[in-house]
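seq as requested:
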Amino acid sequence: MPGSKTNQKSTDLEDRSRRDNIRLLGIPEHEEGTDRQAFPGSILPKLTSLDFDPPLEFQRAHRVGPKRSDISLRPRPIIACLLRHNHARQILQTAHKQGPFRIGQHDIRITADYSKDTNERRKAFLALRPRLRQLGMKFGLFDPARMWVTNNSISKDFYNPDELSLFLDSLQHQPMDSTNPDCSQDTGRENKGGGLLPRAQRKKARSIMTPTSIKGAGTQRD
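struct tokens:
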């Protein structure tokens, strides 16, 4: 969760240092053979069906965590650091649209590589999705840990899950407008939502969804 400004800056710097990294999840142990650094360059064009020009190049690639002798356990993630940032973005955008991918009987996911603090914030935001759907709100989680929310035709970004949770607490027991035709429509932003609050709650919603409600909550990745 967001803490002091020093911690926020430290997290931001760490996330920026990982911008060229991707995580490959679900690849069976030992699938990469003896040349782990060359493996991502051979498998990624096949998974994504992308033509890379110039070809993919990597600064390093490695598994995370100690070796596992039990093949029944979940395989360790592979972190690959690409030489070119535009290649990393291209891969992640394709993975978001087309993933998960398949290798044999295994589902393969490709994700960004975030700091521990950012991962925790993302998980906390994702845990709030049922409440957002219950209230019929449109929402989407964006890079690195920013939750976009629309309520009563007012859109706001939240960088702090606690602030969003408090906002939802103030609305949780309010009746929804079941006649709203937009309720539960897909936003096209990874999530489902929709609907507006009753007129009686609009003033309260506007007062909560102000820039001051997220003051000092975090820093975006450019």
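The longest strand covers residues 106-112.
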